[in-house]
Model the fold of this input.
Amino acid sequence: QVQLVESGGGLVQPGGSLRRSCAASGSPLRCYAMSWYRQAPGKERELVARITSGGDSISYAGSVKGRFPISRDNAKNTLYLQMHSLKPEDTAVYYCNARNYGNVEYWGQGTQVTVSS
Done:
């Protein structure tokens, strides 16, 4: 079982940047495909970006492609989401997610990102 702790959320102005981190403990991160999800008020949780366990395949939601590169450092047991050119519509609670080969999922605690002037 893996525990996921997120950091790096907060308030940022439109056009700004943030870096989200998700630190794993209890089990090596390399055993999991990792994803970032977000949920805005009144909306369904949506997939933002996903990266395979070895980092060889990445996919993005169309709304963030080119702005939110996802990466991982398995040696540091950490997942990252670099968020650039932020827009008010990016405001949401962001969650990291780990999925193992048996499709068992684990979630981080969620952290608010607010884009506002």
In short: The first strand starts at residue 3 and ends at 7. The CA atoms of residues 76 and 85 lie 27 Å apart. The chain has a mean pLDDT of 95. The two ends are 40 Å apart (CA to CA).
